[in-house]
Write a structure and sequence with these properties.
This protein is an alpha+beta fold and 224 residues long. The protein contains 5 helices and 14 strands. 17% of the residues lie in helices and 39% in strands. The strands form 4 sheets. Strands 4, 5, 6, 7, 8 and 9 form a 6-stranded antiparallel sheet that branches. A 3-stranded antiparallel sheet has the order 1-2-3, with no helix packed on it. The chain has a 3-stranded mixed sheet with strand order 12-13-14.
């Protein structure tokens, strides 16, 4: 999910440039959805990934059924890969067949949870494996991260859940290394309901990244 605050900087620096948010995966040979960002309009809190390309259909899937509000994104496309080389187990987990509208369709499980906005655009919410049940609520940890990343005083944010301790922890880099949890939660009021506020804050000098430049979540899990 591209941080809105970073996009605001780019739009201010390059006012005559059209910005497009792209979504895709290597199993789809690249891009499968796009969203043209309207110029000179206020940006939403969560940037849509838009609508599928002409060669792709996206279905939202939850609790064993295709739904119309929010769920895991399943992609049907002529560009879908055949398999993972020499990995039949991963192939079977990732590429599935479902009967939809009376037709058996071969689909990619993207592992991404999304919803539709009021304009019919898809909006990324979180990774499907970042969903938790907390105090009786279904929560997407990506919502925490998006809300925290929207603040200028936050560099990078990553939200993790310790199931044993039933505690949500937000790891982040911040302009103030002495940032306190109560101050962060006060800033988050109105953006997140009370039951979703983190119960622990860890401010890092640098966010650990893996070889692909993404946040090293397995490492952060060891700090829970």
């Amino acid at each position: 999910m591209y941080p809105i605050k970073d996009l605001e900087v780019w739009r201010a620096a390059l006012p005559d440039v059209e910005f497009i948010n792209l979504y895709g995966s290597s199993e789809l040979a690249g891009i499968c959805c796009l969203y043209r960002i309207p110029p000179e309009e206020p940006l939403p809190e969560a940037l849509p990934i838009g609508r599928p390309l002409s060669n792709t259909r996206i279905y939202l899937y939850r609790d064993g059924a295709v739904v119309s509000d929010q769920g895991e994104m399943l992609a049907e496309s002529r560009a879908l890969a055949d398999e993972y080389v020499d990995d039949p187990e991963k192939t079977a987990q990732t590429f599935i067949e479902l009967e939809i509208d009376g037709k058996t369709r071969r689909l990619l499980r993207t592992g991404d949870w999304a919803r539709y906005d009021e304009d019919g655009n898809l909006v990324f919410m979180s990774r499907a494996d970042n969903q938790i049940k907390y105090n009786g609520y279904r929560i997407e940890l990506g919502e925490f991260e998006a809300a925290a990343n929207a603040f200028d005083f936050i560099g990078l944010a990553c939200c993790m859940y310790n199931q044993e301790k039933e505690r949500i922890t937000l790891f982040c880099t911040a302009s103030d290394p002495a940032l306190k949890l109560r101050d962060l939660n006060k800033a988050l009021e109105g953006r997140l309901p009370d039951y979703m506020l983190p119960r622990r804050l860890v401010v890092l000098e640098e966010m650990p990244l893996n070889a692909n430049g993404k946040i090293d979540r397995p490492y952060l899990k060891t700090l829970l």
